[in-house]
Amino acid sequence: MDLVPALQEPLQQPLKSVLGPATAKVMAEHLGLHTVGDLLHHYPRRYEERGQLTHLADLPMDEHVTVVAMVADARLHTFASAKAPRGKGQRLEVTITDGSGRLQLVFFGNGVHKPHKELLPGTRAMFAGKVSLFNRRLQLAHPAYELLRGDSDETVETWAGALIPIYPATAKLESWKIGKALQTVLPSAQDAIDPLPPALREGRGLVTLPEALLKIHRPHTKADIEDARSRLKWDEAFVLQVALARRRHADAQLPAVARRPKPSGLLTAFDDRLPFTLTDGQQKVSREIFDDLATEHPMHRLLQGEVGSGKTMVALRAMLAVVDAGGQAAMLAPTEVLAQQHHRSVVEMMGELAEGGMLGGAEHATKVVVLTGSMGTAARRQAMLDLATGEAGIVIGTHALIEDKVQFHDLGLVVVDEQHRFGVEQRDALRGKGKQPPHLLVMTATPIPRTVAMTVFGDLETSVLDQLPAGRSPIASHVVPAADKPHFLSRAWERVREEVGNGHQAYVVCPRIGDDEDDPKKSGRKASPEDEAEKRPPLAVVDVAAQLAKGPLKGLGVEVLHGRMHPDDKDAVMRRFAAGETDVLVATTVIEVGVNVPNATAMVIMDADRFGVSQLHQLRGRVGRGSAPGLCLLVTEMPEASAARQRLNAVASTLDGFELSRIDLEQRREGDVLGQAQSGARTSLRMLAVIDDEEIIAEAREEAAAVVASDPELAGLPGLRTALDALLDEEREQYLEKG
């Protein structure tokens, strides 16, 4: 029987557990740690020095914290209660200090005896618990604690200067218990296989992997921690970039049909009828795309551009080029509202060029069809027939395009709009419909910082549109603190009336639809922690629309739009709004992406704190699309000092999507760059911060490309292969395969 390599040994086994069964169970269930290797890669969040006390003044509310502090005093009180009516109830209050502040600990009932004996004034200990507020003072109720005693063979100096690792912990497993478990498995670190090629490691002066693991868990000095962190960051960045480089290398080997537009075909005819000139950015990006389409392996390109920068125009020209070359192009949109809207705007832009096979169609015309899940049977059958025969050169649809029944005559290009809303499987299924792999263009209006693009979309080449077309107006954004200043909210509705009075239109956006199905109590769904904290459900479209129509917006034409309406009704509402027949549209985020009504100048976002930074930026991009300036009002009841208000202030202070995406990422952390976020597992990045470690990621990408170019199978680097296999368990391998 093969011996299990030391790092792959499970923490819990039927006959011989590495750790106690209870500890191993909690680690598996609450921290996702199953093997010795998992535990070794569970790094400390920070370090405390025994001689230096933590900042009690900075403790966050409602979070599970670990602090190192000294007992200042301890008092035992007796009191009467329902359980102890004769005044026999006992409460121990212990005050701890760290020089920056004080914190009260409380213990009740039988739980007072042990701490009463042990927590004497002058005692140092580590305390862990959840920070709560009682009588306007921070406290920890029934914290777990571990006394810090100097061992007899340690001098006071070495004891006081030692660095105590503080681990990401849970209420069921305190940091010091994780630390003790780590001491048990630390000898196995010697068996860790080093993924970095020796030349790379030595060239960059990095310590070996076993040494890095020892130093991260048992540092003697702060320099040890730095050495370990530098090394472990490189591991994460490099192994990930090798995975992406191999993906790019494999893609480059795939065959594809080169698609070159005819010299005086459909694309030329389209360009000739454009009433404006393309921006320099649009021309540059189009050239990059056309160069890719002309090669005999599939294009994989990410097109990112601010809301309204003209991405749709660039994508349409790419689709026309492919139709010119005898192929078909499919555009995948995340919602029916958006698919219908894209179809309308493409047909409008193309005019008689979209009337292929019809009377009045131009010489080079093709047919543009739409395909969504809710179409009538006859219309759907006709659209599918047009695709199968090649009559339709362009199809725009939702995931209905992916169904098995849909066949293409010759699919040459897939354009995916708003990539982050599509599962990878969906993209892959559509790509599988070509005779050979089609070219792929992925578009997003969510600006992605360069390092994230290198990691999340590392297998795609990136093009950026950062110029806004002429004629787009600036958008003024303001936070409306409804709870602190109710008259600000009244003024917001007056501003909406003023915009409508000037012949414009407005959106009101709410987080929720607001029928029974949407009520967490009635649907049996648990409310989110934010909802629990707020004690009131987020505002709902249906309720807000009714209140506005009766109250502050009485007399204006108010309509409702949300995702659960029948598609025909949704389309009718959007058409009326686009035609200017409706003054105010009260909607959910179905309008977030791609909806284009130039006459809409104002947007009020209710409960704005319930949306993410990037989402608010997307929503705001729906106004100011014409010549009149846009106005976006972010309504919130959150108090001024809250993190949510700071987030809204950031959105109000800048229109720079890249800056906002950095803020968003710093607040949300990276999620898992290999798409584990889609499956709800933990992040694969434990040490690397995508925003802060830009330099390491860029260098690792270069090194990885060089390694893969010289040895695509990594035959000469078994350690790297092993690390890659560990990173790319089956699910992630599929994610990259399909990316």
Main pleated sheet: 7 strands, parallel
Rg measurement, Å = 30 Å
What is the terminal separation in angstroms?
A: 38 Å
Helix amount: 25-40%
Helix vs. strand class: alpha/beta
Adjacency order of strands in the biggest sheet: 11-12-10-13-14-9-15
Low-pLDDT windows of residues: 152-157, 516-534, 669-683, 733-739
**Number of discrete helical segments:** 26
The best one-word shape is globular
Task: List the main descriptive attributes of the protein structure presented here.
single chain, 739 residues, alpha/beta, 7-stranded parallel sheet, 6-stranded parallel sheet, 26 helices, disordered C terminus
Question: Explain this structure to me?
Answer:
- The chain is an alpha/beta fold and 739 residues long.
- It is built from 26 helices and 21 strands.
- α7 packs across α8 (222-253), α8 crosses α25 and α10 packs parallel to α11 (311-324).
- It starts with 20 loop residues before the first helix and ends with a helix.
In short:
The protein has 26 helices and 21 strands. α8 crosses α25 (718-727). 38% of the residues lie in helices and 18% in strands.
Please describe the topology of this protein:
Layout (H helix, E strand, L loop, with lengths): L20 H11 L4 H5 L5 E4 L14 E16 L9 E9 L4 E7 L4 H6 L5 E11 L2 E5 L2 E4 L8 H6 L1 E4 L8 H11 L12 H6 L5 H9 L4 H32 L12 H8 L6 H14 L6 E6 L5 H14 L3 E5 L3 H15 L16 E5 L5 H13 L2 E6 L13 E7 L6 H8 L7 E6 L5 H7 L4 E5 L9 E7 L4 H16 L3 E5 L10 H4 L5 H6 L6 H10 L7 E4 L5 H12 L5 E4 L12 E6 L7 H8 L9 E7 L6 H11 L3 H12 L25 H17 L7 H10 L2 H9 L1
Parallel strand pairs: 4-6, 9-14, 9-15, 10-12, 10-13, 11-12, 13-14, 16-21, 17-19, 17-20, 18-19, 20-21
Antiparallel strand pairs: 1-8, 2-3, 2-5, 3-4, 5-6, 5-7
Helix pairs in contact: 7-8, 8-24, 8-25, 9-11, 10-11, 15-24
